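User: I'm writing a short report section on ligand binding and want a predicted complex to refer to. Could you take this sequence and pyridoxal-5'-phosphate and write out the structure as tokens? A short remark afterwards would be nice.
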Amino acid sequence: MNGAYGRRMGQIADYYNIVHVDLEFAEDEPVTLEKVLTVLDDHPEVTHFATVHCETTTGILNPIDAIIPAVHARGVVTIVDAMSSFGGVPIDTAALGLDYLISSSNKCIQGVPGFGFIIANRTALARTEGNARSLSLDLYDQNQSFNQQHGKWRFTSPTHVLYAFHQALQELAAEGGVPARFARYTRSEHQLRQGMLALGYAPVIAEADQSPIITSFKYPSAAFDFHAFYAYLKDRGFIIYPGKVSTIDSFRIGNIGEVYTGDIQQLLRWIKTYSTVRVQSGRKID
Ligand SMILES: *Cc1c(COP(=O)(O)O)cnc(C)c1O
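Assistant: Sure. The structure tokens for the complex follow:
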């Protein structure tokens, strides 16, 4: 756990009375293979391992390419919350030995919100018959229904969302697939990061650990008024996010979706205007 979504996994497990061992990191620090292996050594009873790929709390990217194969090699079932990375960051589930990848319609796939999906290793999934603690989240049963009833959902399917998802997948393919989207997000992130640094806004996450999805920036001063900054940008067509880091005053800027170089450039222009007039001279503008 190195953020809100890792902690949420713990909360989900608590609701289902699933015993779990929490390995906690600071929110600006990536999950490391070394510490994961140490905990697994200390807890040979552990059967499943779960982590978050892009921790959207900060925008840090956890190194699943190093962690998952090593955990898988120990015979532990591997689960990754790839909610905010799948579709925008290449992930080779088979090569990693990743048993379950969880994501949703509305982040890097750029569809509308409405359903989550899981990419599962069939062999691992076949072993889960009768395991589910929840009827609606019985993945094995849902998969049986898909396979035996020509793709039928067990309960009412989110039809409109699926049509939107289908369209989003076509748009992803037209863009050049995941590698092209990853390249666009990466370009935007670098442009944003460099531009913000030049304006005096320091990123929370070290460049080596930064995802191309969302970036956290520290408040430039203790007097920084996030709400005024937010409102100023919102009035000009840009919505940013409040920070989610527990120990650092920060805000976040995401660049997934239909966001291109020109958008980042325009955003940086507004932030520059705001920063020079309002933050540095203390003069009010609106
Ligand atoms: C957005 C997100 C979630 C939660 O998604 P909901 O659709 O709000 O349930 C979980 N994990 C990560 C890493 C996310 O970015």
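A remark for your report: Residues 5, 52, 56, 81, 83-84, 104 surround pyridoxal-5'-phosphate (CB under 6 Å). The chain has two domains: 4-172, 177-285.
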